Prior knowledge:
The protein is α/β, with parallel strands linked by helices and about 260 residues long. It has 2 domains: about 35-65 and about 115-240, P-loop containing nucleotide triphosphate hydrolases (Rossmann fold); about 65-110, no CATH class. It contains 9 helices and 9 strands. The chain has helices spanning about 50-60, 65-75, 80-90, 95-110, 125-140, 155-160, 200-215, 220-225, 240-255; strands at about 1-10, 20-25, 35-40, 65, 115-120, 145-150, 165, 175, 230-235. The strands form 3 sheets. A 5-stranded parallel sheet has the order 4-5-3-6-9. Strands 1-2 form a two-stranded antiparallel ribbon. A hairpin with a 6-residue loop joins strand 7 and strand 8 (about 175). Helix 2 crosses helix 3 and helix 4 (about 95-110) runs parallel beside helix 5. The radius of gyration is 18 Å and the shape is globular. It starts with a strand and ends with a helix. The model is unreliable at about 1-30 (pLDDT under 50). The site of adenosine monophosphate (AMP) has 18 residues, from helix 2 and helix 3.
Amino acid sequence: xxxxxxxxxxxxxxxxxxxxxxxxxxxxxxxxxxxxxxxxxxxxxxxxxxxxxxxxxxxxxxxxxxxxxxxxxxxxxxxxxxxxxxxxxxxxxxxxxxxxxxxxxxxxxxxxxxxxxxxxxxxxxxxxxxxxxxxxxxxxxxxxxxxxxxxxxxxxxxxxxxxxxxxxxxxxxxxxxxxxxxxxxxxxxxxxxxxxxxxxxxxxxxxxxxxxxxxxxxxxxxxxxxxxxxxxxxxxxxxxxxxxxxxxxxxxxxxxxx
Length: 258
Ligand code: AMP
């Protein structure tokens, strides 16, 4: 077994970061650790899961699977699923587990998920987590799930969400304070006018935080000691959080492959 440093240019991927970073990890000669496998990002709404999922997905060339984005697409395309989900989403509640697991199962059937994928916003209940475990056991017996928990004080989350803007076309998220677009109010990637999510209104967002506490926070307990569990301080800059997650995942995969 040899020690080797793997250098990754994160500056291209993480907005605001221009330096390269070094990961010092222990790998066998010839060992491939370039794939992240299944990863899920866990955290309250507004902690930056979507932004991190975008960065990690680009870094590894694997898809980001955001259940919120898929639901919003269904709403925009006026599908039956979208009509049902829309009512729940407007109130800040959770779409029923069966609908969600069916949707994720469909998405995981696509071959682009074979080398790995980044789940953003799923699972959100213990029932969904149990379903995911079973699904991976049956369909990805060789893949170990990595769980990344992003923590931020609720007070800071609320402050952040007030400044959150998203691109309606490519779904990239910005923050007018911590992650501003280059041109005021316009997406860096496609120039579309940025919008505020309707469920980011103070009333609905308070409800979503409450639902997170009740339904999703128990997942922290569920995943402790269950798979790889990385905890990151989500209040740091988006670029520092990306580095922490990416190095944690690479070390994990390297250890598994030994
Ligand atoms: P997000 O973009 O992840 O904040 O999701 C927006 C909304 O979509 C949530 O407030 C829920 O109403 C719904 N949603 C997204 N993912 C899930 C899930 N895994 N389970 C239930 N509802 C979800």
